[in-house]
Specification:
single chain, mainly alpha, about 0% strand, about 425 residues
């Protein structure tokens, strides 16, 4: 048991190291892009990233989390062929949906730039952004499949670490205008797809049925038989759509009421605060398949013990980052460049929300991996309602500060809500 614990910490360490590469890559990307593009074009670039993120989430149809759960749960009882079928279903489904989303995004670029954002110079970048949708969507799906195989390090490398480093290389190589930067982003995600497929191909032998120890079989509960992949994905699709909306709506709403430079400053502060998610997602990538496996085998006590360890680990690693953001936001924003210091108060507020998230991390992952997607969906819809109501009140009046307050409150609401539900659901067992 002690050896397994040390091995787990070793995997966490390597995973966090890769997340460190992601942090450096993304922070470098934001700093160099902001300086190369200027505040106005940087604001347009972040609007494009938000646009792409929302469309890609729609295209994934909730299948990425469902794939992680199904692969891990099927392999837990030796059902490799069933895991392989779910993987193929997920890749084909998200690939077709992403292609359709790219066509729709291209068609909507003109109306969105002129009517929604009032920025005619945003039309071409938004059209080019459609090229990013298919490779980004497939890369995230492939990373989720690797997570289900307990290849957390490979999943993080493919899904999160590779593309920002490639983008940083492109910037250092001289890519300095907005259109070229978006084309480079499409190329970086495409290479990530190729790497993800290559890594996944090495594990193809695991997608065959195999025997597992008798004690594991005896612990498996027939009542916990998995539904179809699409059944699992339906509530998680709403969850993913709401989560990206919660991240996107304050930025998009701000783009309606303030100038592009202010959008750029808030976007930088928001993305700095979301670096806390680096720790959460890193640990969560390793936790997700273990949650699904232990739940499928009926080992609730071990599941809850692991969950306590996960929460403690995230808190220890994430709170120092939050503290820096709250104590010295001006220092962090000055690293980006001139014109971004106006978002210092916004960064403090955003960090407060992330502090709650650090203390109550990964409970949404636990609910998703244990078949409580419907409950998670209801919690997320409540978050969305709060975001819309508060956004309509605060953002037009307070601008960046209002957008930060809306974001922080909804982040805290999600963490508190999932924790209370987890306590209620698992207290019964």
């Amino acid at each position: 048991m002690r050896l397994q614990t040390w091995r787990a910490f070793g995997r966490y360490g390597v995973g966090l190291g890769l997340r460190g590469v992601e942090v450096v890559g993304k922070l470098g990307l934001y700093i160099i892009a902001a300086r190369a593009l200027g505040a106005h074009d940087a604001g347009l670039f972040f609007l494009c990233l938000t646009w792409i993120g929302l469309a890609s989430t729609v295209a994934r149809l909730g299948l990425e989390r469902a794939i992680t759960r199904h692969i891990a749960a099927e392999l837990a009882i030796g059902q490799g062929r069933a895991a392989g079928r779910d993987l193929r279903t997920g890749l084909i489904g998200t690939g077709l949906a992403a292609t359709l989303a790219a066509v729709v995004a291209y068609a909507l670029a003109g109306p969105a730039s002129h009517l929604l954002f009032g920025a005619p110079d945003l039309e071409t970048p938004l059209r080019l952004s459609a090229l990013v949708l298919v490779p980004q969507t497939l890369t995230i799906t492939l990373g989720s499949a690797l997570a289900g195989l307990k290849r957390g390090i490979a999943a993080q490398f493919v899904q999160n670490a590779l593309w920002p480093v490639l983008m940083l290389v492109a910037l250092l190589a001289g890519v300095a205008d907005l259109d070229s930067l978006i084309l480079a982003l499409a190329g970086a995600w495409t290479l990530s797809v190729a790497v993800g497929l290559a890594v996944l191909a090495r594990d193809r032998r695991r997608f065959t049925d195999h025997a597992i120890p008798a004690d594991a079989l005896s612990a498996a509960r027939p009542a916990e038989l998995l539904p179809s992949l699409w059944h699992t994905a339906r509530p998680l699709f709403v969850v993913e759509l709401v989560q990206v909306s919660l991240a996107s709506l304050p930025v998009l709403a701000l783009g309606v009421f303030v100038d592009a430079a202010s959008v750029g400053a808030f976007s930088v502060a928001n993305r700095i605060s979301m670096l806390v998610w680096v720790v959460v997602i890193s640990i969560g990538t390793f936790a997700a398949p273990n949650y699904a496996e232990l739940h499928r085998r009926g080992e609730t006590s071990r599941l809850l013990a692991m969950n306590r360890g996960i929460m403690l680990t995230v808190a220890v690693l994430g709170l120092p980052m939050v503290s820096v953001m709250m104590i010295a936001p001006e220092l962090l924003l000055d690293l980006i460049g001139q014109g971004f210091g106006s978002a210092a108060m916004a960064l403090r507020i955003l960090a407060a929300g992330q502090m709650i998230h650090c203390l109550l991390a990964c409970q949404d992952i636990l609910l998703a991996m244990t078949g409580h997607g419907g409950t998670l969906r209801r919690l997320n819809l409540l978050q969305l309602a709060v975001c819309i109501v508060l956004g309509a009140i605060l953002i037009p009046v307070f601008g960046m500060t209002g957008a930060a307050a809306v974001t922080a409150l909804t982040v805290a609401q999600g963490a508190i809500g999932t924790t209370l539900v987890r306590i209620r659901l698992f207290r019964r067992r």
